[in-house]
């Protein structure tokens, strides 16, 4: 579904990503793990068109998207949940969700999607009239994911959904992400919580200082000595 | 019950506004016309301001509008009814170039305000530099036309009173129209978080440019109207930093997030200026400006939502 090939990205003179290549299969969950500053967020921002590339290409279902603008990419079916959720604090929960269905493609089925998102996240339905800024950290993350689902994406990019959340809530959020995946949505997730993230993954990539060091299946990652030592702590 | 009461009050005020100029002196009508014109301008300024696009350079658009229609009239005898739209289009083009350049390269918030501030100054200096056409810093006087609606010219202040009132009503109607449109939804999200908006598929640059163009175009119409009323165009009163800040202050003071906020702010500031000038004008030169400045600072510190905004918030909470 998503294919990234020989991608290099930088901020001005400073190159962050070097020669990144990987594929995400339709219906699968792929996880990119790695330490702070490895370029994980940069990679996601590049895929959703928020950053310009130096070289390389990105394909969605075989169509190159690296030249496209962010709103065109969303229209094509890639939606991103930005780091920290970035909900609109002064809009109500429901208004936040409404903003998610802003793309033309999503406007028609708006009502059905809203119902579905409320079923998925009952807590949002209870608080639909509340200002989003008054939600707890976990609820905000759910709202951010729900808002992204409103655009009816094919591929969901998740940027550190566990950031700043209590362990119990992280488990809950990851369970929800798994549910969303089983409903047929392809997921590409960036995470620092390596152990939890790998449990969800079909495929995983280790990103270190801008390069992909290791690629493999969940089992291969759990068996890898380097990963065990450096990231899982066994 | 409460709603019908508000409608009643609104109708009463509207009737009052309609018949008011027939009972007062020419001086009061003059103040009222100024209030209406500046209410209109600061309302269209707030089209952008309320979404976090704070422009400190609307004097640029005001000047472009006034000078374009004024020069076309004096030199080519073109009616301001047409000239003001040409001025509006010229301002819209400047807004398009400035807006696209700023938003494309992520110039936002305070930096955007500074760029617009520079624009106002550039337009004023340009008007002064093109002395042969514009009369430089001395300005120029519009040719006399007597009473003619076609040339938006009249010796009667009441004519301008109703004309300016129509402009204010127009600006309120457009505000409501924007509120019902996609632009409103997009801009509200952009105003809260640009990156999140972009990742939701909102074309951030497009919507920001659109709202800037609408605001610039309408501001230029206001400039032209002001020129027709005063019949004397001067770069310092129509463009530059001073006017630009005045426009922004009026809207901010009244409350730029509320539809009637800029109007309330304008009424307050213009009356305050006139009162202070009346009291201190000839005895203590400069005191009126000082008092005006102090009052402004107090309002901004203690009522950040603006006067009208604060009152509306208090009432709606009850």
Notes on the structure:
The complex is a heterodimer of chains A (234) and B (318). Chain A has a domain at 1-77 and 190-234: P-loop containing nucleotide triphosphate hydrolases (Rossmann fold, 3-Layer(aba) Sandwich). Helices cover 40% and strands 27% of the residues of chain A. Chain A has eleven helices and ten strands. A six-stranded mixed sheet of chain A has the order 6-7-8-3-9-10, sandwiched between helices. In chain A, helix 3 (93-100) runs parallel beside helix 7. Chain A is globular and about 45 Å long. Chain A starts with a strand and ends with a helix. The model of chain A has no long low-confidence stretch (mean pLDDT 90). With 318 residues, chain B is mainly α. Helices cover 76% and strands 1% of the residues of chain B. Chain B contains 15 helices and two strands. In chain B, strands 1-2 form a two-stranded antiparallel sheet. In chain B, helix 2 (26-49) packs parallel to helix 7 (157-179), helix 2 (26-49) crosses helix 13 (261-280) and helix 8 (182-192) packs across helix 10 (204-230). The two termini of chain B are 15 Å apart.
The SSE string of chain B, one letter per element, is HHHHHHEHHHHEHHHHH
CATH architecture of the domain at 1-77 and 190-234 in chain A: 3-Layer(aba) Sandwich
Shape assignment of chain A: globular
Q: What's the number of extended β-strand segments of chain A? A: 10
Form type of chain B: globular
Strand order of the largest sheet of chain B: 1-2
User: Helical residue percent of chain B?
Assistant: over 70%
Assign the structural class of chain A, choosing from mainly alpha, mainly beta, alpha/beta, alpha+beta, or little secondary structure: alpha/beta
Distance between the termini of chain A: 34 Å
Physical arrangement of strands within the biggest beta sheet of chain A: 6-7-8-3-9-10
Taking all Cα atoms into account, the compactness measure Rg of chain B is 20 Å
The average pLDDT score of chain A comes to: 90
* Multimeric state: heterodimer
Structural class of chain B: mainly alpha
Largest sheet of chain A: 6 strands, mixed
**Radius of gyration of chain A from CA coordinates:** 17 Å
Q: Tell me the strand percentage band of chain B.
A: under 5%
């Amino acid at each position: 579904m998503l294919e990234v090939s020989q991608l290099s990205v930088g901020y001005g003179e400073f190159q962050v990503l070097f020669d990144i290549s990987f594929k995400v299969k339709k219906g699968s969950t792929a996880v990119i793990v790695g330490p702070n500053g490895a370029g994980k967020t940069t990679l996601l921002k590049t895929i959703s068109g928020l950053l310009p590339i130096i070289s390389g290409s990105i394909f969605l279902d075989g169509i190159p998207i690296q030249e496209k603008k962010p709103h065109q990419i969303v229209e094509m079916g890639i939606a991103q949940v930005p780091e920290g959720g970035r909900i609109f604090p002064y809009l109500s929960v429901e208004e936040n969700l409404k903003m998610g269905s802003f793309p033309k493609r999503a406007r028609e089925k708006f009502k059905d999607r809203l119902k579905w998102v409320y079923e998925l996240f009952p807590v949002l339905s209870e608080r639909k009239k509340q200002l989003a800024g008054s939600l707890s950290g976990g609820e905000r993350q759910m709202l951010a994911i729900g808002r992204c689902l409103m655009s009816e994406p094919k591929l969901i990019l998740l940027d550190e959904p566990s950031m700043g959340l209590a362990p119990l809530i992280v488990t809950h959020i990851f369970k929800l992400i798994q549910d969303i995946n089983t409903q047929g949505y392809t997921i590409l997730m960036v995470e620092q919580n390596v152990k939890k993230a790998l449990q969800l993954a079909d495929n995983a990539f280790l990103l270190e200082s801008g390069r992909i060091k290791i690629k493999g299946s969940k089992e291969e990652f759990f068996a890898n000595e380097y990963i065990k030592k450096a990231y899982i702590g066994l | 019950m409460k709603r019908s009461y508000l409608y009643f009050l609104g109708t009463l005020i509207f009737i009052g506004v309609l018949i008011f100029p027939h009972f007062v002196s020419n001086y009061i009508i003059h103040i009222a016309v100024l209030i209406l014109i500046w209410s209109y301008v600061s309302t269209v300024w707030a089209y952008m301001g309320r979404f976090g696009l704070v422009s400190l350079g609307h004097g640029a658009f005001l000047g472009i509008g006034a000078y374009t229609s004024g020069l076309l009239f004096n030199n080519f005898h073109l009616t301001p009814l047409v000239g003001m739209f040409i001025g509006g289009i010229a301002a819209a083009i400047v807004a398009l170039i400035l807006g696209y350049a700023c938003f494309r390269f992520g110039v936002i918030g305070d930096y955007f305000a500074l760029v617009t501030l520079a624009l106002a100054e550039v337009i004023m200096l340009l008007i002064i530099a093109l002395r042969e056409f514009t009369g430089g810093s001395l300005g120029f006087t519009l040719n006399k036309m007597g009473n003619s609606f076609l040339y938006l010219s009249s010796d009667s202040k009441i004519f301008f009173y109703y004309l300016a009132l129509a402009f204010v009503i127009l600006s309120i109607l457009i505000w409501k129209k924007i509120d019902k449109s996609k632009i409103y939804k997009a801009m509200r999200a952009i105003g809260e978080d640009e990156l999140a908006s972009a990742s939701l598929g909102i074309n951030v640059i497009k919507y920001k440019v659109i709202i800037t163009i609408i605001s610039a175009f309408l501001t230029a119409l206001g400039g032209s109207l002001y020129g027709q009323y005063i019949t004397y165009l001067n770069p310092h009163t129509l463009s530059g930093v001073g006017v630009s800040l005045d426009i922004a202050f009026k809207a901010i003071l009244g409350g730029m997030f509320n539809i009637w906020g800029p109007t309330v702010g304008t009424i307050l500031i213009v009356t305050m200026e006139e009162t202070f000038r009346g009291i201190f004008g000839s005895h203590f030169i400069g005191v009126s400006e000082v008092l005006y400045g102090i009052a402004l600072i107090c309002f901004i510190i203690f009522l950040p939502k603006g006067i009208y905004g604060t009152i509306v918030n208090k009432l709606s909470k009850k």
